[in-house]
TrEMBL record:
One of its GO terms (molecular function) is single-stranded RNA binding. GO terms for cellular component: bacterial nucleoid. It holds the Pfam family NA37. It comes from Cellvibrio polysaccharolyticus. Belongs to the YejK family. Keywords: Cytoplasm. The keyword RNA-binding does not apply. This is Nucleoid-associated protein.
């Protein structure tokens, strides 16, 4: 855990007609104890949340000034506290343009890791609860909801500064007040949403073509290891690095050289990315086929299709052979009960 700077400010608007007010903290927190636990919880829940968007800063720094302020900060011309003040005040101005109400806390968390430096912004709120005190009387309490936030952003600073990435800015804007979400995205300066679903689909097509050159057992292991690696990276909030994946496949399958998969990707794409952010749902469904309606739920390994499971598209009929023993037992019991 390497949180280097943390600060938070309060933004409040009681009604659509009232003015947005902000209470700005004068200095950063001391990065220790409970504060570090709070920061870690915000980070962990951010990684786990779905629906994130990936892109970059807008080039229009006049209307989206965060990237310009961040550049000044990195060059030592602006302090961390001043940077957070500017962003908070700018968010307050964007919220003024809406009818949204809010009573939240804007956290700014800077982190230095082996993989690079990051700046994260979270908009969290207090929640109310009741508890029993020592005399077993009910009392009220408030706590910071580090899991239920719907607005956040994360900048991979090294990727942004290098100019080699189109996905260095991650935006979380899920559910809730759309106008408030748009105001947050405006204050962050999010631009050029990246289509990770299309990218993942292209990647899985390449994996399919690569697997066709392998024997059946190696192909099955390869597809499984691709899924395992991608999901592990996604769970950790990291991109899929093709060189790492290529080395992993060579090690796990004991086939070929460490760079075989990367070379194959290069034959299929003119300018293959060094890394990409996978769409977890597509990755999970790559080795499993599933579906459900109100009366039926089914899931099976994709390798079963054409073997134990056959689908007739013209008749829209699915035939299952080698039924699992537990399912067979339940079916027989059900048939016997109905016949009595």
């Amino acid at each position: 855990m390497a949180f280097t700077s943390i600060i938070a400010h309060h933004i409040h608007r009681a009604s659509p007609e009232s003015q947005v007010t902000s209470n700005l903290r004068a200095d950063g927190f001391t990065t220790q104890g409970t504060l570090l636990e709070c920061a870690q919880e915000l980070k962990t829940h951010f990684i786990r949340k779905g629906g994130k968007q990936y892109g970059r800063f807008s080039d229009d720094t006049a209307n989206f000034p965060l990237s310009a302020w961040l550049k000044e900060y990195r060059e030592g011309r602006l302090g961390f506290v001043s940077l957070s003040h500017k962003v908070t005040s700018n968010l307050a101005l964007e919220i003024e343009k809406t009818t949204s109400t809010l009573d939240g806390y804007l956290f700014f968390i800077e982190e230095a890791l082996e993989a690079g430096q990051y700046l994260s912004i979270f908009l969290a709120e207090h929640q109310h609860a009741v508890y029993l005190d020592a005399e077993l009387d009910l009392d009220n309490s408030r706590y910071l909801d580090t899991a239920g936030f719907n607005l956040a952003a994360k900048v991979h600073i090294n990727d942004w500064e290098s100019g080699d990435s189109a996905t260095y800015l991650t935006l979380l804007k899920t559910r809730g007040d759309k106008d408030l979400g748009d105001a947050f995205a405006q204050a962050v300066g999010f631009s050029d949403k990246y289509d990770i679903k299309a990218d993942t689909s292209r990647f899985l097509d390449i994996v399919d073509n690569y697997s066709k050159n392998l024997d059946e057992q190696t192909a099955r292991v390869t597809r499984t290891k691709v899924v395992d690696y991608c999901l592990e990276q996604s769970k950790a909030g990291k991109p899929v690095v093709l060189n790492e994946l290529s080395e992993t496949l060579a090690t796990e399958t004991k086939q070929g050289a460490p760079n075989d998969f990367v070379r194959f990707v290069e034959t299929r794409q003119a300018e293959p990315p060094r890394e990409f952010i996978p769409d977890s749902s597509q990755i999970r469904n790559y080795v499993r086929i599933s579906g459900r309606n109100d009366a039926l739920s089914m899931s099976f390994a994709s390798e079963c299709l054409g073997k134990d499971i056959e689908y007739d598209a013209e008749k829209d009929v699915l035939t299952i052979n080698n039924i699992p023993a537990s399912l067979k037992s339940k079916l027989l019991k059900h048939l016997k009960r109905d016949s009595e």
